[in-house]
Specification:
This protein has 291 residues and is of the alpha/beta class. The chain has helices at 18-30, 43-51, 62-66, 81-88, 106-115, 160-172, 182-214, 222-228, 235-244, 246-268, 272-290, and strands spanning 11-14, 36-39, 57-59, 71-74, 97-100, 123-124, 126-128, 149-152, 176-179.
Length: 291
């Protein structure tokens, strides 16, 4: 395996939203791309990306967008990946490297295996562990990935030089890159990201139905805001993530439900010692990882 300092003559980003737009901005900041081509469904969004200086030009057809590109980044919602993979494959150049930013990896890898054909070895699955609750190119910013982790989940077919090239791309964008097996990635992210989002959406939904009777939101303060910020995330994107990482999510959700049930019983039984034990372990853990 050779190490790469990254440069690209033509980098195509399919899905110029928060993540795709931020990557384009970060790579521009690094001055490592001669040309960045965008692709998406809505010309108004792509025109905005050109006006903001995020991309140089755009195409609506993904096979045309990837033609002549030496790097292709798929940054569309998870459930759009399959369509994009199928549509772009005919336009790929021989020396291309392809990566994606999807929040679950098993589903994208499965689709890539069935659709990329001889380009499967050019595919380096990836996931930046960075984001906000905003969507769209207007929300993108060059610093999003600075000192943040990016997980690459190369599969056995992935060419190691191509993997090194995508690692160098993310490093040029300011990120720290690690590698993980696909299944392990999906289990870890189900626990640390997908479950918290599901709980935040669920909690606010429950309170929304109570609010009609009890004006609960009139008294919502800092704790509520801290806990529920991520419930302002895009519902469609998070539906896709929960559905596409269903097995790992259901497993951790079952674990959580069991623990919550025990906590409920401790409260019902007036068992203060059990409650404080749970709270203390949680506080110690959070203080350690978030300090
Ligand atoms: P976003 O801001 O909504 O951007 C998605 C982009 O994809 C939009 O520019 C949209 O543009 C385009 N798009 C949607 N469907 C398409 C299709 N069928 N064909 C072509 N383009 C399409 O979403 P995002 O937050 O950047 O998320 C993108 C990916 O990053 C997702 O796979 C997500 O799992 C992953 N991710 C998100 C975060 C996060 O915190 N947001 C973090 C890490 C990874 P048009 O509407 O104009 O087509």
């Amino acid at each position: 395996m050779t190490t790469h300092s990254f440069s690209s003559k033509r980098l195509t980003i399919i899905g110029v939203g928060l993540i795709g737009g931020s990557l384009a901005r970060a790579l521009r900041r690094a001055g490592v791309c001669d040309e960045i081509v965008g692709c998406g469904r809505d010309e108004v969004h792509l025109q905005k990306a050109v006006e903001l200086g995020v991309i140089d030009r755009y195409e609506i057809d993904s096979a045309t967008a990837v033609s002549g590109a030496d790097v292709v980044v798929l940054a569309v919602p998870l459930r759009a990946m399959v369509t994009v993979l199928a549509e772009m494959v005919a336009g790929l150049a021989m020396d291309v490297v392809i990566t994606d930013v999807g929040s679950a990896k098993g589903c994208v890898v499965e689709e890539a295996r069935s659709l990329l054909g001889e380009h499967l070895s050019d595919f380096v699955p990836g996931h930046p562990i960075a984001g906000t609750e905003q969507s769209g190119v207007e929300a993108s910013f060059a610093e999003l990935f600075d000192h943040r982790s990016v997980i690459l989940t190369p599969i056995e077919e992935t060419d190691s030089d191509k993997c090194a090239r995508i690692r160098a791309m993310w490093e040029a964008a300011g990120a720290n890159v690690t590698e993980m097996a696909v299944l392990h990635h999906d289990e870890v992210l189900a626990a640390t990201s997908h479950l918290p989002h599901l709980l935040a959406f669920s909690l606010v939904n429950t309170l929304a139905s109570l609010d009609e009777r009890k004006e609960v939101f009139d008294y919502a303060a800092g704790g509520f805001r801290d806990f529920t910020r991520i419930a302002s995330s895009d519902p469609v994107m998070w539906r896709d993530i929960c559905m596409e990482n269903r097995d790992a999510l259901l497993e951790i959700l079952q674990h959580f439900n069991n623990d919550l049930k025990q906590l409920e019983e401790a409260v019902r039984d007036n068992d203060g010692e059990a409650v404080v034990n749970v709270f203390s372990r949680a506080k110690t853990t959070r203080d350690r990882i978030c300090s």
